[in-house]
Design goal:
The protein is an alpha/beta fold. The protein contains ten helices and six strands. It folds into two domains: about 15-150, Rossmann fold; about 160-215, Orthogonal Bundle (Arc Repressor Mutant, subunit A). A six-stranded parallel β-sheet has the order 2-1-3-4-5-6, sandwiched between helices. The longest helix has 15 residues, at about 185-200. The termini are far apart. Keywords: DNA-binding, Phosphoprotein, Transcription, Transcription regulation.
Length: about 220
């Protein structure tokens, strides 16, 4: 009886883990080592270390946290990784899921965006997808992305950004008008437009949303 041919073994995905928390890294490494089709080639505690290790190990995928303590953050690390050939795919794995964080990561070149609450099986599947250049998003993140695409929020004008920046410093309408050489009535008009665009109705709400979406430089 002719034996049934077996499918060829899948080449393991070479992965580099970047997270500034040593305990989290240890847990991820233990989890990844349990997967037969994943090979961990390195671990980094900072963006700078991830860049250096990526040059040495040439991973297929970098598993990237967004907040990395001191030094460059996960978004900037992602941008630099994607700019250096051979550019690895980057799969963000984080606890942060604000619109601004998701947008910044994807614009920097991240192939996927997962939350740390995901199941191990979903993480393994996302890693395989990322290695092939296919997007992988946690369901809550996918919902947010689709919502933004369906209901895009108007962008702030440069003048509105200036007023929002002064607003975040606690300046009154009168002080903002003096700083920008415009009338208080004009400031109020711009504030109403800012509130409408950000979906808020108070000064504190506008500042809070601006900080969440990283609209303040």
């Amino acid at each position: 009886m002719t034996p049934t041919p077996q499918p060829p073994a899948r080449t393991p995905v070479r992965i580099l883990v970047c997270d500034d928390h040593a305990v989290v890294r240890a847990g991820l490494l233990a989890l990844l080592h349990s997967a037969p089709d994943i090979e961990v080639v390195g671990e980094a505690g900072s963006g700078e270390e991830a860049l250096a290790l990526a040059r040495k190990t040439a991973p297929d995928v970098v598993l990237m946290d967004l907040q990395l303590g001191e030094g460059i953050d996960g978004v900037e690390t992602t941008r630099r990784l994607r700019a250096e050939p051979p550019a690895p795919h980057v799969l963000v794995l984080t606890t942060y899921d604000t619109d601004a964080d998701v947008t910044r990561a994807i614009e920097a070149g991240a192939t996927g965006y997962l939350l740390k609450a995901e199941r191990a099986e979903d993480l393994f599947t996302a890693i395989q997808a990322a290695a092939q250049g296919r997007p992988a998003l946690s369901p809550p993140v996918a919902d947010r992305v689709m919502s933004r695409l369906r209901n895009p929020r108007p962008a702030l004008t440069p003048r509105e950004q200036d007023i929002l920046a002064h607003l975040s410093r606690g300046l009154s309408n009168h002080a903002i008008a003096r700083a920008l050489y415009i009338s208080e009535a004009t400031v109020k008009t711009h504030l109403r437009r800012i509130y409408d665009k950000l979906g808020v109705d108070t000064r504190a709400g506008a500042v809070a949303v601006a900080k969440e979406q990283r609209l303040l430089s």
